[in-house]
Write a structure and sequence with these properties.
Strand content: 25-35%
Structural class: mainly beta
Number of strands: 15
Distance between the termini: 45 Å
Helix content: under 10%
Number of helices: 2
Radius of gyration: 25 Å
């Protein structure tokens, strides 16, 4: 069985420099794309004598409550769809996905050119009541959770979709081992700290016009029906499988529910055809 969830919110946070100032309080929660980039020494800042680094990181969250009444999933694939539109795109890089440790607000900003819309979430704050422990949601186990490890994907060409199995986070959230606040998506530490520019890896956001490029979380259960009746073997041990279309549902005999050991008999019979 498969269930596809749509995000309840997503946004990009950045400390990009515009006109000699960092836009750390800008919000782009209503933008149609999620833009991941790292700029190295592309901009001059009067107050900085060394290299100038500008970063962005992506935030995306899903509601798991609809999964709580069912069995634990076997797989949960976070998918962000590439929306290459002719812009420069990097290659041979790695993206890391970390579970967030605090909730963020999507915000109402949409200016991805001059970053003039002031709102949260942004580079400094997750919400109106909760600043990041370190700017850019960068503090391990305060801004993002490390207990489940990092979910990573390598990109050879650069135009691939992001597709990462995050079932460890979904399952841990469903049993209340961790709180579900969504994910922080970023270049790996190696890309964020090297002396290179990585511009720009662009995905569709929840506000994208085309439905097929919106982020999704595809949750899967490996329930199946196995039937070996076409290959019976005599004088050897046999296994028989019974299938119910409803998960965790017992069988019935009329209106009587069958449960417990020895509640059913299996009868094997032969039938002779009569001409």
């Amino acid at each position: 069985m498969i269930r596809i969830l749509r995000p309840i919110k997503d946004t990009t946070i950045t400390d990009k420099v515009i006109h000699g100032e960092r836009c750390t309080d800008a919000n782009v929660g209503q933008a149609g794309t999620l833009d991941l980039f790292k700029l190295y020494d592309e901009t001059y800042l009067p107050s900085v004598t060394g290299s100038v680094v500008e970063l962005s990181r992506l935030l995306v969250a899903f509601d798991y409550d609809v999964l709580r009444d069912g069995p634990m999933p076997d797989k949960a694939t976070l998918k962000l769809v590439d929306v290459y539109g002719g812009q420069t795109t990097p290659s041979n890089f790695t993206i890391d996905v970390w579970p967030l440790s605090r909730s963020f607000e999507e915000g109402r900003g949409s200016d991805v050119v001059a970053f003039r819309d002031l709102d949260v979430a942004n580079w400094l704050s997750a919400s109106n009541v909760s600043p990041w422990a370190t700017a850019g949601a960068a503090m391990a186990d305060s801004d993002y959770y490390t207990g489940l490890g990092v979910f990573s994907q390598s990109f050879a060409r650069g135009d691939e979709d992001l597709e990462i199995d995050v079932v460890a986070h979904v399952s841990a959230s469903l049993v209340d081992d961790v709180e579900n606040h969504g994910f922080r998506v970023s270049f790996s530490e190696a890309e964020e700290t090297d002396e290179k520019t990585w511009f720009v890896k662009r995905f569709g956001s929840v506000q994208a016009y085309e439905r097929h490029v919106k982020p999704t979380l595809m949750v899967e259960w490996y329930d199946y029906h196995q039937d070996d009746t076409g290959e019976p073997l005599l004088n050897s041990s046999q296994s028989f499988f019974m299938y119910s279309p409803t998960p965790n549902q017992n069988f019935y005999s009329g209106s009587l529910e069958l449960s417990g050991a020895n509640c059913m008999n299996l009868v094997l019979a032969t039938r002779t055809s009569v001409a």
